[in-house]
Every structure is written in structure tokens, then in C-alpha cells.
Design a protein that fits this description.
With 316 residues, this protein is α/β, with parallel strands linked by helices. The protein has a single domain, classed as Alpha-Beta Barrel (TIM Barrel). Helix content is 40%, strand content 15%. The protein contains eleven helices and ten strands. Strands 1-2-3-6-7-8-9-10 form an eight-stranded parallel beta barrel, surrounded by six helices. Strands 4-5 form a two-stranded antiparallel ribbon. Helix 1 crosses helix 2, helix 4 crosses helix 5 and helix 8 crosses helix 11. The longest helix is centred in the last third of the chain and has 18 residues.
Length: 316
């Protein structure tokens, strides 16, 4: 079986499918109900339009996202690049447990292979740093799995330089992933620097800032129980209202230029030097089309300057 990591260097589109969007009623880290048949239809639709990289993790729907991706592509496995992760597990009562413990890492990998209905995962990433576990012990498990052919490449999400250097002592780290969008920029600097210095791909997640940058998430919107935005502390206690207020001003500028919100969010990321791919979660066919169109619809510097002026922000 061959590896499909080449998609990171020469794929039709920089757009990658973010699997949290299809986690459905499985809950965990997910964004509301979506039936299995609709999820699989959405995955096939994205694939047919050139999306070949599909990113997921066990915590997305408590395994539901991986299962749906596995069912959708079991007959197309050699034509896609699958990304999954270890490090965010849960207890029997569904309480989230973040750990890079080697035993948990191995267990999560084996379960992901079963759920994805695949003998291997193209890119397997450590989801978050864990201050209680030396990352080198975690990567030792992944390096062994790579020798066994169960994963093809190792990556790190939301990492830092210290973790990257330690992990690299054990095996080659071949991709990095961090949050990045107009409102969340701080986490990207170290990742881009490391990616550039080591000549590896860098992917961004959180492109739409949980929907704020699409305009579909407003202060009066309510969320289903299966949507993590209805309960997650990192959302409920965040400065989301401030971001929503700012987006109103951004939207006025975009409307004056005839530019859609998705176009703005995606082009903001793609303008960042060194960023090779963006993860976008879509919930229907129209959103897939909108995201794909946005990857090729460049926005002038003047539009971004106008937004900075309206928000009274420095040109950085």
C-alpha cells in the first residue's frame, strides 16, 4: 500500500475536509446533528470536486466522524489522504481526557484503524501537547506503528518548538497543524517557523472561527445539545461576542465589495506565506462549493486595508 502524503505537495486544492462537521449526534467535539447518509453524501460530494485530504479524530463525535469517513471511502482508500489523531480520549461517562500516555496512544490508533476501515493512516498526529508525558515516549509508539505500516507519516497539532524538537529526536515529524483565522493568529508563528525551517507542510484549522466568520453564528443563535458550542467552556466563556461585533463591521466592508464571508476567511489564511493547506468543516453541498470557489477567488489588498481601517487595527 502506498502513501498519499504527496497530496500535501501537489493536490488539486489546498482545501481539506474538517471531519468534526460530520460528527452528528455522536457529540464530543462536533457541531450538531447530521445523519450518516447525509454525512457520507457530503464526503462523496467533496471528493468528486477534488478534495482528497480528509482530517478527523476520535473525539469528533466520540468516533462517529471516523466511522463515517471509513464507510464513505472504504472503496476509494487508495485515492485519498486520511489524517487522524491521538491524545484526546474520554472516560466511560464521556468526560474528555487529554493524554499522550503511550498505552492510550496505541489503543487510540488501533481503534481508529478499525473505525476508518483501513490498514493504515496516511498522517497520524499528536493532537495536543501533554505536560505530564514526554512527547518522545508518545512518538516511540508512533515510530513503531510506522515500521509496522499502520501509519505512514507522523505530525504534531497545536505544538511548540520544545515538543517538536523532542519528538524529532525519535522520528521525523512531517506535518504541523495549528489554529489560525482572522481572530486567532497567535498560535501560528511558532508552527510556521518550524515548518519553514524543516521544509514540511503546515495546515490551519479553525478557518471560520466556529462559524463566526461565516456570519451564520450570531449572538441570538442557539445550538443543539450535540453541538459543542452549546456547552463547551472554551466557547461559552470565550470572547465570542466581541468577535461577532467585529464581524458586523467586516461584513459591511465585504458587502460593499461583493465578497462573501467564506471567501474572506479562506483568502485571509491563504495569503499567509508558508501555510499550505486549510481545514474547513462543511455541513452541506453548498458550503463545499462555496469553500472551493473561495480558494481561487483572490481578494485585493485594498479590501483588507479597508477592514483594518474600519476596525481601527494596525496593519500587521
Amino acid at each position: 500500500m502506498h502513501s498519499n502524503i504527496e497530496y500535501f505537495k501537489s493536490t488539486y486544492t489546498p482545501l481539506c475536509f474538517g471531519g468534526a462537521s460530520i460528527s452528528g449526534e455522536g457529540a464530543g467535539y462536533g457541531f450538531g446533528d447530521i445523519t450518516e447518509s447525509d454525512a457520507i453524501s457530503l464526503l462523496h460530494y467533496a471528493y468528486d470536486r477534488g478534495v482528497k485530504i480528509f482530517d478527523t479524530a476520535p473525539i469528533y463525535g466520540f468516533r462517529e466522524s471516523e466511522k463515517r469517513i471509513g464507510k464513505a471511502f472504504k472503496d476509494k482508500r487508495e485515492n485519498i489522504c486520511l489524517i487522524s489523531k491521538c491524545g484526546v480520549s474520554w472516560h466511560d461517562n464521556m468526560r474528555v481526557n487529554m493524554t499522550n500516555d503511550p498505552k492510550t496512544t496505541r489503543k487510540m490508533l488501533e481503534q481508529s484503524l478499525k473505525d476508518l476501515q483501513s490498514d493504515y493512516i496516511d498522517l497520524y498526529m499528536v493532537h495536543w501537547p501533554d505536560e505530564n508525558v514526554d512527547i518522545r515516549h508518545t512518538v516511540e509508539v508512533l515510530a513503531k506503528a510506522k515500521i509496522e505500516g499502520k501509519i505512514k507519516h507522523i505530525g504534531l497539532c497545536n505544538t511548540n518548538e520544545d515538543e517538536f524538537l523532542k519528538a524529532s529526536e525519535v522520528d521525523k515529524i512531517e506535518c504541523l497543524q495549528s489554529q489560525f483565522n482572522y481572530f486567532e493568529r497567535a498560535e501560528i508563528d511558532d508552527g510556521l517557523k518550524l515548518a519553514h525551517e524543516n521544509n514540511i507542510p503546515f495546515m490551519s484549522w479553525g478557518t471560520f472561527e466556529k462559524g463566526i466568520l461565516t456570519g451564520r453564528v450570531t449572538k441570538d443563535r442557539t445550538f443543539a445539545k450535540s453541538d459543542c458550542r452549546s456547552w463547551a467552556p472554551w466557547w461559552v466563556k470565550s470572547n465570542k461576542d466581541e468577535k461577532m461585533e467585529k464581524f458586523k463591521f467586516i461584513k459591511k466592508v465585504l458587502d460593499s465589495h461583493g465578497i462573501g464571508p467564506e471567501n474572506f476567511a479562506i483568502q485571509f489564511n491563504l495569503r499567509t506565506k508558508g501555510l499550505s493547506h486549510i481545514l474547513c468543516g462543511a455541513r452541506n453541498h453548498e458550503q463545499i462549493d462555496s469553500c472551493l470557489k473561495a480558494t481561487t477567488s483572490e481578494i485585493s489588498d485594498q479590501v483588507f486595508m479597508n477592514i483594518l481601517e474600519v476596525l481601527n487595527e494596525p496593519n500587521s
